[in-house]
């Protein structure tokens, strides 16, 4: 091979080495970018779920808390999951296990969303009770000042149980509440108005 031929061969080899390096560097850069994007998205999901749990905690304590905050966080989480699923690089078979794990997470998220809906319904009933029952009790006492002392004690005990059940989340208070309501329903009143009011209280409990 002539000197010129050797030079051409060396230049061609350098070109292929450079092209290979450029391709490898480009692929590495894209993979790093993919990793960063997915990592940031997962971080967003974790942050949104923490905020969701915080909203649920607030809802259990504050009367008439707006559950739109919780639904908003759920929408944000689902949007981030969709972004990961639609990422072109993650369609490679090498990431099949990763996408499968996201599928399991989506199932758990759907279960959590169902529990949130149930919690919202039950919590609404409890919060309404904690505001409505005391006002009914006060009305009963204002109408019937000379009411049966034992009935009044039972009424006070149940009203306290409602508040304790709503704040402590202890099911034992629910048992006490049911027992108290049963005792209230056993009372008989000569005064029809008092009986009707007592019935209203019983139905409310």
Structural account:
84% of the residues lie in helices and 0% in strands. The protein is mostly helical. The chain folds into two domains: 123 residues, no CATH class; 61 residues. The longest helix has 59 residues.
- Calculate the mean pLDDT score and round it: 70
What string, H for helix and E for strand, traces the elements in order?
HHHHHH
Gross morphology is: rod-shaped
Instruction: Tally the helices.
Output: 6
Q: Which blocks of ≥5 consecutive residues have pLDDT under 50?
A: 1-23
Number of domains: 2
> What structural category do the secondary elements indicate?
mainly alpha
- Gyration radius, rounded: 33 Å
Cα distance spanning the termini: 102 Å
> Quick one: how many beta strands?
0
Tell me roughly what share of residues is in helical segments. Answer: over 70%
What share of the residues does DSSP label as strand, in percent? under 5%
Biggest pleated-sheet summary: none
Can you tag this structure with a few keywords?
205 residues; rod-shaped; disordered N terminus
Summary, kept brief:
The chain has 205 residues and is mainly α.
Question: What's the arrangement of secondary structure elements?
Answer:
Elements: H1 3-61, H2 68-85, H3 96-143, H4 149-168, H5 171-185, H6 192-204
Helix pairs in contact: 1-2, 2-3, 3-4, 3-6, 4-5
